Amino acid sequence: MESSILVPKDLITIQDLKEQLLLLQKSVDEDEGRYLVRVLRKLSITRRRITPQILAKFIEESLKEESKTRSLLVKIFPITLIKEGKEEEEKKEMQIEIEKEEEEKEDEEKKKQQRNIIVQAKYPEEKAYLQLLSLLQLFKLKDYGNALKLCEFSIDFIEKKNRRTLDSFLSKVFFYYSRINEILGHSKLIRKKLLSAYRTSTLRRDVSTQAVLINCLLRNYLQFNLYDQGDKLISKSQFPPNSLNSQHVRYLYYLGRIKAIQLDYTESFRCLREAKRKSPRAGARGFRLSVNKFLCIVQLLTGEIPEIELFMEKDLHKYLKPYFELTSAVRTGNLGDFKKVVLREAQVFKQDQTYSLILRLRQNVIKTGLKKLNSAYSKISFEDISKKLQLDSSDSVESICSKAIFDGVIDAIINHEEKYIKFKEMGDLYSTLIPQKAFGQRIKFCLNIHNTAVKNMRFPEELLKEQVEIDTEDGKEQLKELEKMSANNEEGKGDFDQGEPGNL
Amino acid sequence: MEEQLFKLSKEFKFQVEQKQPDSIACKKLLTKLKIAMAEEGILFPGTDFPLDPKNIIFAREVLELAVIMSVKLKDMDLFERQISQVKPYYFDYGNEIKKSENELLILGMNLLYLLSLNRIGEFHTELELIEFESRSNPFIKFNLQVEELLLDGNYLGIQTICEKPPSDLYSVFVSRLKLSVQELILDCADKSYKSLDLKTAKEFFMMGSIEEVKEIAKKNNWPIENGKIIFENLDEDEEKIPTNKVIREILDYAKELEKII
């Protein structure tokens, strides 16, 4: 980190940081969580604009001399980074003169005053925020040694305070703690700490940290293929339902992967599909790519063929090509093609950790092949079957067919003496109960969606009605407004902030 | 204390390596050994203290012998317990000490055990723990082949491959596997054949004699005519309408409709 001069752009960032600290103070003073959430929402923008120099100056200004945070951070971001020489002062004055020429004298005076306001960090929230910003900066600069030290300091600091307002900071710090250890290869060693932190956060009802820790632990287990441990964690813990969407999506992804290994393909498919639906449209490319890959394989394992849209997303198209070839081989029931593709792309599959699942697809290829024969032939000899499906010997064909009949893949009778298999004719489908079952499923699904939609709609109206009951004097007026609101809601023009009663 | 441990372990090894180990003596020795090891702090040491590789190797050897003992004594519960005790020594402490020769043998036995009981989910989770490179090892390869054949339904293939297991210790599991395969074959045959003459039935069902075939036929109520077993295939021409179910469903739909309106 070389020393350099603070550019005016940096001064603006420092200004913003000061405002954010003030917001955090306001949040604690008035006990309103929204300001804290607002600050954290801007985190992704803020972290991009920060440089070590900004941090050095800001830390020096905002933290008191005695604070332990300051002593640690000052070591990492030394103040010598900033050249405070006369040249800087002169440049500032020149700027001010130029701007004075325009008729904005008063504004300039204000700005000068603001620049000189020093915001001191009063509350642990602000200290935690500064720690978090420094951590993000170190992570960006890939300074993992210092970052790890800061993580551990921050975790200690926050856990001792035990304030619910610090929960969101703690969850972020834990995420980076886990990630840095993963990069350094120390994942095995931190499991104990993560588990005990999870216990603490559950006792304290710290929702965001619980969610992040479960995801970190699952990721840790999956890295070492410890699927049974991951399964045990899932069965013993409850993922908090009111966590952030990003954590929920990650949880669904890990859950889907574990279920797939345990042969619970329908459940796995459901989880992965939900994860894909809730993930961001653009961005998070690596995640979406991985979800698509697993979705493709799991869908093949359930016996369905994935639709072609799965492979056609613009930015993922290139990387999904091996999976596309695999799907075509399975679709045609061609065992030879399947073996070729697997051999050729083995490296790619092993890297994606889908290899073991793909090896299980062999069964599916044979099943699809038999199904095709079912619809194409009424009678076929074992020898012909073994040639068409490229199975090794015609002796085994008989028992394979017999098992397939038992599993319900095909409907047929084997004639052992004359060595052929005879397929039963498909009767009139509509005279069976199958259409009714299919309709029943679809009806249930639509009713489900309808009921959940109604439930979600009722919530703000109930809140409004509560407000009406409280202010009985303005009762009639508010009832009128209520009706207007619900009318707007039905037309879809209403604009309800989740959880807030709106403008009554 | 150490001397006693060594003495006990040598005796235990001697007992286990016999063809037919004495069950009571072995189990007694094992308990004594485990207590002694626990007192020394060798059994499952925590990872907080630095680990002495010699102790770990010693404990692992004893537990491996315990697994082999349970196989020879054909005690499956004991086998399961011992396997779960020896696994941490392969995976968690694995980095500190060099690989045991018997690791793949024991893990392979566990896989075959799960296969023979048709616990395919656990089979796959266990398989994930084994590295890809080890999959070509004969102990593991055997299991993978059996799994493939089982999934395909290639029961003839299973018969051929089971004649040459990679180790004598596998024979216990192989016989259990044969039993489960037999049951599977019976189920499949019931559905897929109209009739089967007794000789082919004997080959298919992997039975020793025609008498056994007749017994099985009686058990499953398959009549035997002209030296052939006749399987009764259910004719699904007249499917009864499940009236209760249909009525209940329609009432549910009516209820939901009322709610909406």
What does this structure look like?
The complex is a heterodimer of chains A (about 500) and B (about 260). Chain A is mainly alpha-helical and about 500 residues long. Chain A has helices at about 10-30, 35-40, 45-50, 50-60, 70-75, 85-100, 105-115, 125-140, 145-160, 165-185, 190-205, 205-225, 225-235, 245-260, 265-280, 285-300, 320-330, 335-345, 345-350, 355-360, 360-375, 380-390, 395-405, 435-470, 475-490, and strands spanning about 380, 410-415, 420-425. Chain A contains 25 helices and 3 strands. In chain A, α10 runs parallel beside α12 (about 205-225). The model of chain A is unreliable at about 85-90 and about 490-504 (pLDDT under 50). Chain A has a 3-stranded antiparallel β-sheet with strand order 1-3-2. Chain B has about 260 residues and is mainly alpha-helical. Chain B has a 3-stranded antiparallel β-sheet. In chain B, β2 (about 225) and β3 form a beta hairpin. In chain B, α1 (about 1-15) packs parallel to α3. The mean pLDDT of chain B is about 80. Classes of the chains: A mainly alpha (about 500), B mainly alpha (about 260). Chain B: Belongs to the proteasome subunit S14 family. Chain B: Keywords: Proteasome. Chain B: It comes from Anaeramoeba flamelloides.
Quick one: overall form of chain A? Answer: elongated
H/E element string of chain A? Answer: HHHHHHHHHHHHHHHHHHHHHEHHEEHH
Q: Regions of chain B with pLDDT < 50 over 5+ consecutive residues?
A: none
Spatial order of strands in the largest sheet of chain A: 1-3-2
Structural class of chain A: mainly alpha
Strand content of chain A: under 5%
Strand count of chain B: 3
- What oligomeric state best describes the polypeptide chains here? heterodimer
In N-to-C order, the SSE pattern of chain B is HHHHHHHHHEHHEEH
Shape of chain B: extended
Radius of gyration of chain B: 26 Å
Question: Count of helical segments of chain B?
Answer: 12
The residue ranges of chain A in which pLDDT falls below 50 over 5 or more consecutive positions are 84-89, 491-504
